Amino acid sequence: QVQLVESGGGLVQAGGSLRLSCAASGLTFGVYAMAWFRQPPGKEREFVAGISRTGGSTGYANSVKGRFTISRDNAKNTVYIQMSGLKPEDTAVYYCAADYRPGSTAVPTTAATYDYWGQGTQVTVSS
């Protein structure tokens, strides 16, 4: 049974930082591209950042470039996102997702591509 469990969300003031973690189990972590998506209140789910199965390639939404950094530790089956310079518009439920990508260094940005999802963690940025 595949499980993705996010942690690290919370309430932070604008300009602050948070690090989210996503621990994966029940899958061969190293063959999955991983990503973070978010869903702001009343809006569609959107891509935030992704990382290839080896960690050699990353991709970011324009809205978070230069502020967020995605990383992964394949020995710990965990993907992280370090968020700095947080803005009220970053307020959302953040989800991690896994996409089966053996032999590929692609970083998909489309939610429908991803095979497994976590339950989400709330991030609230106050102004």
Short description:
The protein is an all-beta fold. The chain contains no helices and eleven strands. The termini are far apart.
Question: Overview of this structure, please?
Answer:
- The protein has 127 residues and is mainly beta.
- The protein has strands spanning 3-7, 10-13, 18-25, 32-39, 46-51, 58-60, 68-73, 78-83, 92-100, 116-117, 121-126.
- A hairpin with a 4-residue loop joins strand 7 and strand 8.
- The protein is built from no helices and 11 strands.
- Strands 2, 4, 5, 6, 9, 10 and 11 form a 7-stranded mixed β-sheet that branches. A 4-stranded antiparallel β-sheet has the order 1-3-8-7, with no helix packed on it.
Set out the fold topology.
Elements: E1 3-7, E2 10-13, E3 18-25, E4 32-39, E5 46-51, E6 58-60, E7 68-73, E8 78-83, E9 92-100, E10 116-117, E11 121-126
β-strand percent reads over 45%
What share of residues is helical?
under 10%
Shape: globular
Order of helices and strands: EEEEEEEEEEE
The overall pLDDT, averaged over residues, is: 97
Number of strands: 11
User: Which consecutive residue ranges, at least 5 long each, have pLDDT under 50?
Assistant: none
Number of separate helices:
0
Structural class: mainly beta
Report the end-to-end length measured between terminal Cα atoms: 40 Å
Compute the CA-based radius of gyration: 13 Å
> Largest sheet, described in full?
7 strands, mixed
Key traits:
127 residues, 11 strands
